[in-house]
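Structure ticket #2291
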Amino acid sequence: MTDELAITGLECFAHHGVFDFEKREGQIFIVDLVLGIDTRAAAASDDLEQTVNYGTLALDVKAAVERDPVDLIETVVQRIADVCLLDGRVEWTRVTLHKPDAPIDATYSDVALTITRTRGNAHD
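Resolution: structure written out below.
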């Protein structure tokens, strides 16, 4: 049994993309996270040390998104999942990376990639 901890709408500014202007000018990326964790120990103890500190996690994810520009959102979203799985209490994570200003010559509302990774198969 796992519970789900979610952080949605985490805004980051980064320089990812296949085009030179994306790397030069940067753009907004938005992250949604869901973590599968067992919260019973934290609930019983009322102790932050018994659960995932979502404040720290949000800052770690933001830093991971904003460093080291790459071409593909696939690379960035895997990087985020890896950060989420660093805490041994996280059994799985579902990460959505939104790129709302992707350079597409058409009207659209969002571009997003969602991946799910579990402990032990983070790169499978």
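Closing remark: The longest strand covers residues 3-14.
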